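Dear colleague,

Following up on Tuesday's group meeting, I ran the structure prediction for the two-component complex that the binding team flagged. I've pasted the input sequences exactly as they went in, so you can double-check that nothing got truncated or mislabelled along the way. The structure tokens for the whole assembly follow below. Feel free to forward this to whoever is handling the docking comparison.

Inputs:
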Amino acid sequence: MTENGTFEGTHPIANFYQDQGKHRGILAWILSTDHKRIGLLYLLLVLLFFSVAVFFGFLMRLKLMAPGFPLMKPQMYNAIFTLHGIIQIFLVVIPAIPAIFGNFFLPLQIGARDVAFPRLNLLSWWLYISGAIIVFLSLFTGGGPVDTGWTFYAPYSLRTMVNVPLAVFGVFILGLSSILTGINFVTTTHRLRAPGMHWFRLPLFVWGIYSTAWVQILATPVIGITLLLIMLERYLGIGVFDPAKGGDPILYQHLFWIYSHPAVYIMILPAMGVISEVIPVFSRKRIYGYKAIAFSSMAIASVGSLVWGHHMFVSGQSDLASLIFSLLTFLVAVPSAIKVFNWVATLYKGSIELKPPLLFALTFIFLFSIGGLTGLFQGALAVNMHLHDTYWIVGHFHYIIFGGMGFGFLAGLHYWFPKMFGRTYDCKKAVWAWVILFIGFNLLYFPMLILGWEGMPRRYYDYPPQFHTLHLLATIGSWILIAGLIWIFLNLFQGLRKGKEAGGNPWGGTTLEWQTPSPPPMENFERIPVVEKGPYEF
Amino acid sequence: MFVSWATGLSGKVVDQVFFYILAVSVFLLALITFLMVYFVIRFRKKRNPQATDIRENIWLEIIWTIVPTLIVLAMFYYGLTGFHFLKKAPVEAMKVKVTARQWSWLFEYENGIKSIELRIPIGKPVKLFLTSQDVIHGFYAPAFRIKQDVVPGMTTTLWFQATEVGTFDVLCTQYCGLQHAIMMTKIVVVPSEEFHQWYQKGREEMEAIKGKPRGAQLFQEKGCIACHSLDGTPRVGPTLKGFLGKTVIVITDGEERSIEADDDYLRRSILEPNTDVVKGFPPIMPKEKMADEEIHELINYIKGLK
């Protein structure tokens, strides 16, 4: 590469794996400011943490296989469901799509050489791994693993003997990482678009990442401050949340959900972005309702920041507050519905190839619809009185987070895999693995909806015998689901090692990342492209 | 078990809204899924090698914005009217004070009776005034479809009315620590006559205790009597008849050991109830704040229970 950033005279071009930078070996990765390498660093850690959290989930389901099943003691179960939640939410689901695909593809899709602040980007990754290490350290220090649930509700979290301060400090650091990533992505989208890439020529994945980044910047500080208050209250005895010291435990819940509800949109908006990429490419057709999809992302991000109180209908907050939060909750369902209709309309009169990325994307629509529709029940004030804090909620949010964000992630992984690694995978095996995963998923989570309606509360290490059948079904589902996951990743891993060379554009995509070789060179584009048409012109 | 029948007025109200939303949701899900599958088959590449470019139709966009908005507003409205009913207790409702503590429930009636089960007459509205002694709990009666968090430092309320005789579960829904999963009790709905007899008898017992020593009164006031019988029958906790001086097997940190139930053990059990729990009983006894002198009186009273 010459100094003015072109690749003249060096053919074939070195891809970003081969590039010779300042450092060698592992340092060439963990000190790299290249957005693609950082994206892959996140991928590695996220998959590692995901495996740990899935293992915890597996243990929980095993314990609940039968009433009184003596697999572990209550304290152990309480710690495991807490860790499952903390790891999945803060270490896996929130960073997954923005930090992996956002890092890797945001600059590529807008025609940039990197994000706006590459070194800040590396710092975000270091904060992420530091936060993760601190969370894991909290398991073996102080009073042992946290047993509060990932929600850290006061006053229980203020009184339990386990190592709450270190765990919340870890989450605080993770929040910092998330904020910096958000700042980076907003700036990148505003400042580094290629010539001609005006706002309505942005791929919809960029819109998803962009709206998410705003939520990351604006909402995350609230939980950061709240968790610091928990630490202060535990160490210095300041009575902010503990009623015994004059504090207010409902205030804690407000502050917690002011972040943690929008966090759901941090999870789902980027996944919706992935779906909006995949559907047009495999229907060989412009996406239907580009502007409606783009604006609904912004609508979800803004209205979604005002609905946190629907987690608190039975908490003791005022009935008037509940009324307003319920109304806003129902309204925020509309932009999600609009997206679904536009996706389905895009299929109409397309020329559809049901390749694995599309299969995962359509599964996203199906499972996310179940997740969204079950959410309507909880949003209705009267029904919430019955369903709140039951297995219905557990079923609902797994349909949203795993069925939505998880399948969106898998769609993205199967879609961009050839670009990221330069090789393809076995499509047939991917489809069979999908079949297993789909069956396991529904067998695991659908019974939870029925359990909740029958009155099974969540966070129970044991249960009365009338709930046995459905719990047993869910446990069997968890085994099938894990088998599906293992097969999916084995197949991809095999593609990584032995897959055929993918070439620059194996799916016939029209967005800018497909105009680079696979894997892309260090600075992405030989010459910054000039954009003359919309993102999905086939 | 795939059926969960609702009971009481509240059960009926909640289930109506539930099934309305269920019907709409099933229809929408079926519609979306059908269209998706149909398009994928009908417009597959083999059958439709060339995609047709379709421009947005503004009316279609408007329709599928407005129709879902109307649908969700209807759901909001039904949810709200149900909620209005669930939150507005009739003035003639019988009042019961509910205290939650890790990990048990205590119900106190207007005449002073204390009970660990909620016994109520059929057909009479009951209004609960709930508070917690320690962390947040959740009072949940699934058959009645009602729930309310029980928060320390404040009083929340909940009302319901039984329409049939029977026994119904009460569960804790707000995670409250180690034994959250077994923090359960019952709502016992009985005919009015039976309730009044029980209520009267409780009242008489309360009167009878007035002339008794301080220890006996404390045993009643602090709610010990709800779990520890005086006549030899085991309840949630062991009976205290002839308890003092007995050799009992207790569970300490998951290990069994044999100790003598002496003064010291009783004192420890009042101060730190769940360190040495008598084998066969759940570790759910709440800590009660008591002065040294009160503990002394209480132990003296228990000593006398031969």
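Chain B has a mean pLDDT of 91.

Cheers,
M.
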